[in-house]
């Protein structure tokens, strides 16, 4: 195996197709066994404003003498050639890589860049619900020195990958992807070494808000594309504001990941549901917490009714209205009957996001959800005859959160 190229980009923003640019490059090269062979980094002159300095710590003055991406590209391509590209939330870095190479005049046809994502691998092999690089490193008991600094983050990715290699069998489960990466046809160019320009300081340490702590405790999605989207969404929500430009770019990013608008609606409702569950763990929702939940809901295109539904679910899960031995699983068929407290389409969107099916009452039905579980209606009588459990809407919402807890425990 030729080895790995662990990369990290600091950028002016989150959306390469919307004129955001790479601001800093960090590269750590590993051999096939995970040992460090070389590393390098440099600031990059983006040819535009540097974006949120309060997050990445890079100022406009620092990049004035830095090389452009076009000047860095030959060395970067040499570093990547024959190796497996590795990044935390690889789809994000790969989109920037391809966009920047295209701007620099490199174009090629063929398959997408094969890349290994430590965020996705951590969800499979680590006992950590958080997608964050630092949290994954803590779970793996490896050092993650720095945040929003390209070389520090690339080093953290390399250390995390080395741990994951030791925690899996040989050859590693991603060996097929590595074989594809070794054969990948990168653009050919003459290698030149740019004049590296380093930082004059460190990225600022951002104050942690209560919502940051909640995000770190939320369950991972079983779909790596959803985790990739949510990681970008969480970065976009740092300032609790989404411009129209950012909203459009998020939809575009989701489309690139294969997530359509209907799926996004379910993802956003499910995200709010998980946030509310973690917020309710202490049995109290303060006025400030409720205000922040409502603000995030608005940014996600949701409303106060969605917040109320998510909090009802959190309370129901905490009170365990249904025997804990009963668990829903993706693919289960759910029948909804009667008038519901919350909008039916919102409940159905949550069910779909959990991988549950909505349909009529049959012997295959896993659960009947009724306004009154003691109802003597024909459908309820039929469910009892089939041995199908009947629960109220609150019970269903509690079971949805129970699914997330169960999936996280199993992972």
Automatic annotation (TrEMBL):
SUPFAM superfamilies the record matches: Ribonuclease H-like
Location of the Exonuclease domain: 3-170
CDD domains documented for this protein: DEDDh
Keyword Zinc on entry: no
A Pfam cross-reference name: RNase_T
PANTHER family in alphabetical order: DNA POLYMERASE III SUBUNIT EPSILON, PROTEIN NEN2
Protein's name according to its UniProt entry: Exonuclease domain-containing protein
């Amino acid at each position: 195996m030729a080895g790995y190229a662990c990369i990290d980009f600091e950028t002016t923003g989150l959306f390469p197709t919307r004129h955001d640019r790479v601001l800093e490059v960090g590269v750590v090269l590993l051999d096939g066994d995970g040992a460090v062979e070389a590393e390098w980094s440099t600031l990059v002159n983006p040819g535009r404003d540097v974006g949120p300095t309060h997050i990445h710590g890079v100022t406009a003055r620092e990049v004035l003498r830095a090389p452009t991406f076009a000047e860095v590209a030959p060395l970067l391509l040499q570093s990547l050639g024959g190796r497996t590209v590795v990044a935390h939330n690889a789809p994000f870095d790969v989109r920037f890589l391809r966009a920047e190479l295209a701007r620099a005049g490199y174009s090629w046809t063929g398959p997408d860049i094969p890349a290994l994502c430590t965020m996705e691998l951590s969800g499979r092999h680590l006992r950590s619900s958080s997608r964050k690089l630092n949290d994954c490193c803590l779970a793996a008991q490896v050092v993650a020195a720095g945040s929003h600094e390209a070389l520090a983050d690339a080093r953290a990715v390399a250390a995390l990958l080395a741990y994951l290699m030791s925690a899996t069998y040989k050859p590693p489960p991603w060996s097929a992807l590595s074989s594809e990466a070794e054969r990948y046809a990168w653009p050919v160019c003459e290698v030149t070494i740019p004049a590296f320009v380093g930082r004059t300081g460190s990225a600022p340490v951002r104050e942690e808000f209560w919502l940051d702590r909640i995000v770190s405790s939320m369950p991972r999605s079983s779909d790596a594309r959803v985790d990739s989207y949510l990681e970008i969404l969480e970065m976009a929500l740092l300032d609790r504001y989404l411009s129209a430009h950012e909203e459009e770019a998020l939809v575009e990013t989701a489309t690139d990941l294969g997530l359509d608008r209907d799926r996004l609606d379910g993802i956003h409702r499910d995200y709010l549901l998980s946030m509310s569950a973690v917020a309710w763990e202490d049995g109290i929702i303060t006025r400030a917490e409720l205000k922040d939940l409502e603000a995030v809901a608005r940014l996600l295109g949701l409303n106060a009714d969605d917040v109320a539904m998510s909090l009802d679910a959190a309370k129901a899960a905490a009170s365990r209205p249904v025997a804990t031995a009963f668990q829903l699983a993706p693919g289960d068929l759910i029948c909804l009957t009667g008038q519901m407290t919350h909008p039916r389409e919102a409940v159905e969107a949550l069910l779909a996001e959990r991988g549950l099916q909505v349909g009529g009452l049959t012997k295959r039905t896993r659960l009947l959800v009724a306004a009154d579980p003691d109802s003597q209606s024909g459908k309820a009588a039929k469910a009892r005859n089939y041995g199908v459990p009947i629960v109220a809407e609150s019970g269903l919402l509690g079971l949805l959160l129970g699914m997330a807890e169960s999936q996280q425990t199993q992972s």
